[in-house]
Amino acid sequence: MKESYIREATRTTPYACVNFQAGKIELQGRSSPENTMEFYEPFIRAITMIGKLNKEKIEADFKLMYFNTSSARCIYLIVKQLKRLEDSGKNVVINWYAEEDDEDMLETGMDFQDIVDINFNIIMTKSTDEYV
């Protein structure tokens, strides 16, 4: 078994990482892939696997600057999977990053939190430089 699942960022896809040993999940950058499910399906499978392997805390960082509608659906599926892990007894921490002047990203995070009924740490940043 690999230690991590990693997809490097491109112009249209975010950096996506699941570190199985550390219990860490990260999605960072811009998301507007041509085939959204093709990009996100392996990432969601990796999140399912981390739940089977890691008995401790699972921490997910969403550091997105932009995502299109089809990506929003996949991000919703990711948050739902994290809720399933939490419901199964895992300690799940979700950190949702938004720039101070990006009300849309802030509201989207709050909407996901409410719809899925899972707590988010909303972290406001001054600029995207802080995401790196």
From TrEMBL:
Annotated SiaC family regulatory phosphoprotein domain residues: 8-123
InterPro entries listed in its UniProt record: SiaC
Name by which UniProt lists this protein: SiaC family regulatory phosphoprotein domain-containing protein
Organism for this UniProt entry: Ekhidna lutea
